[in-house]
Amino acid sequence: MKRFFISFLGALAGIWVSLFLLSIGVVLVIAAIGTSTVMGEKSNVKISRHSYLNLKLNGEITERPGNLDPLAAIRGDHSATLGLNEIVGAIREAASDDKIDGIVIECDGSAAGLAQRQAIREALQHFKKSAPDKWVYAYGDIYIQGDYYIASVADSIFLNPIGQVYISGLSSTNLYFKGLLDKLGIDMQVVKVGTYKSAVEPFTLTSMSQPAREQMSQLLDDMWQPIALSISEARHVSPDSVAAWAKEGSFAFAPADYVSRGIVDRLVYRHEFDEILAKAIGCDSTDDLNPVSVPYYCKSRDIDRYGKGNDATIGVLYAVGDITDETGDGIVASRLVPQILDLAEDDDLDGLVMVVNSGGGSANASEQIWEALQQWKKITGKPFYVSMSDYAASGGYYISCGADRIYAQPTTLTGSIGIFGLIPDFHGLMADKLGVTTSTVTTVDGVQFPNTLQPMTPAQRAAMQTYVNRGYELFTSRCAEGRHISQDSIKAIAEGRVWSGDRALSLGLVDEIGGLDKAIKGMASEIGAKNWTVVSYPAPRKWYDELIELSEDFKNSVVSRQLGSLAPLYEASRQVTVMAPVQARMDFVTIDL
């Protein structure tokens, strides 16, 4: 234990020194990059004839283009994360652009959620349908499963002759900290409602409970089946063949087997693939190829304008990340609520679509956001839709349930209607491990609550349970009101259980299967618009905002790198310490595709 604390504290000391030195360089780097970015945006963007859209699947894909990563900038990578809205918009525009001959999907190991990948794949399918004279090719040295799922829609899939394709099905692995917390003398005190509300389990158990395992097993099956079916249909093989690829370990197949099994079409080196592209475009030499990246192409086309764009203006409000009351870089109620009320005063908006990608967070913040959205509907009388991305569960569902219409992808994780209270007790750590004790004088017993230095008294636990129960009643009543079904019916499918988008549709928790594009088109149809313009909120951060706030993400990134194997402990402890006492939060689920 002594060695653990010496290692942990020593790592933290090194972190703060690193932060001080790096922050100086970051300021200079971001300023220089920001200035060059602004200069670049002012330059004229020109797309040559016989170009192709180069969709490079590498790095993180977010709902919208991300901010500059300070650490990546120091390493010489000046690119921001690629936005899903840019990818889908670029693919849509390329279909009608006579300067774009086709699309190349370069698979290089991207990080994206299942619903995000589904949206990209759907955009490519629409491209093929609306522009049958154009082609879609995919190339990779190594196809991770998520990239392959997207690439499977291509006309032809090309693989490096010594490459690999990973197809393994879906899995989810959680970390459990109970054993470590016991050694540290920390007791996590839990009050919850919902048999399946297993978000607290990493802090109270050493392995997955039976209800959590049952739920996760069904979720993975529900999400894998449509993925496997989509791959089998695109590759013209049976679903059993896709199951066999996963079961037999496709990463170890001989390259020739990838072709014979129908996983890929041809084995070619990159220069040979470039020659295939040159032939498809009609170039005399590979030197004449004109690849156009997604961000560059988006500068040449207005991806927010559909048709002439003059019939209506549809607002798209992004609600992404943890839901908090006052601070954070996710869904912060103190910032989002005023934004929603300001939008209610915007007469130019004809409707509002909120994109939700959140596993929830503060129950109080979720209620405030829900109420603000109800005010938006009451003040404007205009339609309000929700488009669910990878997650829209617990607090994410809370803020969604009042929408006039809810869209979700089949692989969206939603529901998780339940709440819990999680209060750490550090008494054992402070007194037994560190020798630090406390003495308190109060006018009323138990007035100090929550008190992380003492365990809850029976009276405090009972009061906390009453508070959580009342919050659950409010949550389920909001869902019942929004979905126009009885509260008892909501409770029957609540209990903190997480559902796939397909299951949620059959249960009445969502209205339609589809992504953001489908939600926008649905709203345009409701308001009678054939041409419309999309305006996104909140406004993207500028480069100079990074100078004012070097961002919590920057600090956490440095900390995680320095701590190495201890990083999960740091992240879990950080998350618990900033949590509101009562949470509407889904399980800590990461599904690997």
- How much of the polypeptide forms β-strand, as a percent range? 15-25%
Major sheet, described briefly?
9 strands, mixed
Oligomer: single chain
The shape, in one word, is globular
Stretches where pLDDT falls below 50 for ≥5 residues?
A: 30-43, 546-551
**Rg from Cα:** 26 Å
Tell me the distance between the termini. 37 Å
Number of E strands:
24
Q: What count of helical segments does DSSP give? A: 23
Helix content: 40-55%
What structural category do the secondary elements indicate?
alpha/beta
User: What average pLDDT do the residues reach?
Assistant: 86
Description:
The chain has 593 residues and is an alpha/beta fold. Strands 10, 11, 14, 16, 17, 18, 20, 21 and 22 form a nine-stranded mixed beta sheet that branches. Strands 1, 2, 3, 4, 5, 8 and 9 form a seven-stranded parallel beta sheet that branches. A four-stranded antiparallel beta sheet has the order 7-19-23-15. Strand 16 (384-393), helix 15 and strand 17 form a beta-alpha-beta unit. The longest helix is centred in the N-terminal third of the chain and has 41 residues, at 2-42. The two termini are 37 Å apart. Mean pLDDT is 86; it is low at 30-43 and 546-551.
